[in-house]
Amino acid sequence: MQPWHSSLFSAVTRLTGQAREKGLYLTVSDDFDALIEAAGQAVGRGPVAPAFDPRVSELGAQNGFWVLGTDERGRVGHLQAVRLIDTGRRTLRQHIDTHLLDFAPPQCAVDPDGSASEAPAANAFGGRLCYHGELWLRGGAEGFRGRGLSAALTRLGIVLAYLRWAPSMTFALVSAWSIEKALTNAYGYINAEPRGAVWSIEGTTEKQEEWLVWVTPDQLNVLLEADERSDLPWRKAA
Fold first, then answer.
1. HSE-up of residue 167 (Cα within 13 Å, Cβ side)
2. CA distances in angstroms from 5 to 1, 102, 163, 190, listed in the order given
3. Domain assignment of residue 236, yes or no
4. Which of 35, 69, 145, 164 has the fewest CB atoms inside 10 Å of its own CB, making it the most exposed?
5. In a domain, 238, yes or no
6. Residue 18 maps to a domain
7. DSSP string of 160-229?
8. Does some domain include residue 221?
9. Which domain holds residue 21?
């Protein structure tokens, strides 16, 4: 086994162990109908985005997986999903622009004619990429937020994506609030650029912006090596 893969497997063991210590038990699935069902049981969580909804997208073991976290009573406490995207000869920016509604926030009525990806960095990537989304962690008195798990769980999704598909990079689209709070950087998405997606909301002049964040294999390798030394910021992150 190559040292890189050994590092990835070690990270999976370490990160799932952190979740288990806090009472969150994780399973990985490629049944996206089950994701829809689990999301419906997640109290306070919004709908699943089109990119991960099997009713509108072709999804399965060949191009996607999702992670379920349950507590000791079997209640849904965590969700996240990853989808493999092959842009072919197109750039990521061209792919997003062509498939805008796949990436659109499901809670908004997006007007695709006024929406676009405008991040210059999206022109630099193409080919086999992984899109990471649907991240949710239950809050409240019986929840898991504020217990040091958010960063570990995000990292787990990134690591599992590299183990399964070895993409040239893994990316997400996140709110400006996440950038302001330095959450994505702490979680391992060490690159960030504004205007990853600019959404026009139907019936208004409102624009909603999301940042493009990403991490490459070389960068992930460095982060995992640092994690072995326990000196990464997500050790202290919520």
1. 32
2. 7, 31, 7, 21
3. no
4. 145
5. no
6. yes
7. HHHHHH--SEEEEEEEHHHHHTTHHHHHT--EEEEEEEEEEETTSS-EEEEEEEEE-HHHHHHHHHHHHT
8. yes
9. 3-231
Residue showing tokens 């086999």: 128
CATH of the domain at 45: 3.40.630.30
Q: Which two tokens stand for residue 100?
A: 């805008």
Distance CA 157, CA 67 (A): 8
Residue type (1 letter), 103: F
Distance from C-alpha of 122 to C-alpha of 98, rounded to nearest angstrom: 13
Per-residue model confidence (pLDDT) at position 4:
63
- Please name the residues in contact with 48: beta carbons below 8 A apart, sequence gap of 6 or more: 35, 36, 39, 81, 106, 134
Distance between CA 137 and CA 237 in Å, rounded? 14
| CA proximity to 96, closest of 118, 70, 124 | 118
| Sign, Cα dihedral of 156, 237, 3, 121 | positive
Considering its fold, how many domains does the chain have in total?
A: 1
How many other C-beta atoms lie within 10 A of the C-beta of residue 164? 16
Tokens of 62: 């060949």
Task: Render pLDDT for 50-90 as a digit per residue (tens, 0 to 9).
Answer: 999 999 999 999 999 999 999 999 999 999 999 999 999 99
**Structure tokens of 27?**
């399973």
